[in-house]
Amino acid sequence: MKKIILILLAVAASLAGRAMEQVDTITVSTSRIASPARCVVAVPDSYMDQADTTHYPVVYLLHGFGDDHRYYASKTPLDELATQYGVIIVCPDGRKSWYWDSPLQSDLHMESYITCDLVPTVDRLYRTIARPSSRAINGLSMGGHGALWLAMRHPDLWGNAASMSGGVDITRPKFHKKWAMSKSLGAYESHPTRWKQHSVKYLAETLPADTLRQVNMMVMCGTEDFFYTVNCDLDAVMNTRKIPHTYVTGPGNHSWAYWKDALVAIMDFFDRNLAR
Fold first, then answer.
1. Looking at residues 41-58, what average pLDDT do you find?
2. Of the candidates 236, 228, 168, the residue with the CA atom closest to the CA atom of residue 203
3. Number of domains the chain is built from
4. 55 vs 87: CA distance, rounded Å
5. 3-class secondary-structure state, position 220
6. What is the CATH number of the domain that holds 56?
7. Cβ(82)–Cβ(43) below 8 Å
8. What's the order of all strands across the beta sheet hosting 58-62?
9. Structural domain boundaries enclosing 201
10. Could you tell me if 141 and 170 are in contact, meaning their C-beta atoms sit under 8 angstroms apart?
11. N or C, where is the chain less crowded by C-beta within 10 Å?
């Protein structure tokens, strides 16, 4: 409890003395990942009205490998997106973490940071609706894996989740030497079980079906994407287990040209499902 209070005081201090920006960057003090832990937060136009007391749903957007918390703000006007859908948008810096807790890197416990530090901090600093049905999480590539990984494992935090071109099965041989996963998990040849257990597809196969059914899920992937096959495999697993979800495929590769339209489709999906 003392640690949480100190974290909140540190964030509050960083915001003190200046007016809130509609698209702002906050820094969260944490021992779970290397500092500084920065995060972009965007609020709707109405939030900036001093007379407004509305509490808003929250959408977390996770970036892909090699990017950071500034990625989405560099690609799309987050203030307009937040205003259009009436939500608070949160974009954390996921480093090269794949959004799990690395068993090898003690300063890269990203899952614990997001679930134990970031979400409570956002709920205390902003007028959020702090319940699972009013939270959503989405991501692209590594972040698509992360969004489903976090929501499947923490339905007590997120009742809505989506993935754009997510790396949802990392065990394929062609992925073993890529994206710093061996640095986080160890070499695949030495730790095949660990790699399997850190895959979204494994969660879909093994978590209780009733747990997975707590989350409204949407999965999107372009047919020319190198992650297309593993997304089809995930869809098949969830169909076999009768896990409700929406799976959308169509022309597109692993690029913003595909994700910009996918983001709109997923925000529409969240808009239909988020509790207000």
1. 96
2. 168
3. 1
4. 9
5. strand
6. 3.40.50.1820
7. yes
8. 23-28, 37-42, 88-92, 58-62, 135-140, 160-164, 216-222, 246-250
9. 2-273
10. no
11. N
Is 133:161 a contact under the CB 8 Å cutoff? no
- 170: amino acid identity, one letter: I
Cβ neighbors of 114 (< 8 A, separation 6 or more) are: 60, 92, 99, 150
Taking the C-alpha atoms of residue 173 and residue 171, their distance in angstroms, rounded to an integer, is 6
Q: CB 115: neighbour CB atoms within 10 A? A: 18
**Residue entry with tokens 């992360």:** 146
Question: CA 143, CA 129: separation in Å to the nearest integer?
Answer: 23
pLDDT tens for 157-194 read: 999 999 999 999 988 877 766 767 788 888 888 899 99
Number of residues that make up the chain:
276
Instruction: Out of 14-18, 108-112, 184-188, give the one with best mean pLDDT.
Output: 108-112
* pTM (predicted TM-score): 0.91
CA–CA separation, 231 and 168 (whole Å): 6
Q: Which long-range contacts (CB under 8 A, 24 or more apart) does 154-159 make?
A: 154/115, 155/211, 155/212, 155/214, 155/215, 156/132, 157/115, 157/119, 157/132, 158/60, 158/132, 158/215, 159/131, 159/132, 159/133, 159/134, 159/135, 159/214, 159/215, 159/216, 159/273, 159/275
- Closest by Cα among 89, 113, 121, 130 to 15: 121
Question: What are the start-end ranges of the H helices in the chain?
Answer: 2-15, 71-75, 78-85, 110-112, 119-125, 142-153, 181-185, 192-197, 200-206, 209-212, 228-240, 256-273
Calpha distance 224→253 (Å, rounded): 5
Angstrom distance (rounded) from CA 84 to CA 88:
11
Q: Could you give the count of Cα atoms lying within 13 Å of 177 in the half-sphere of its Cβ?
A: 1
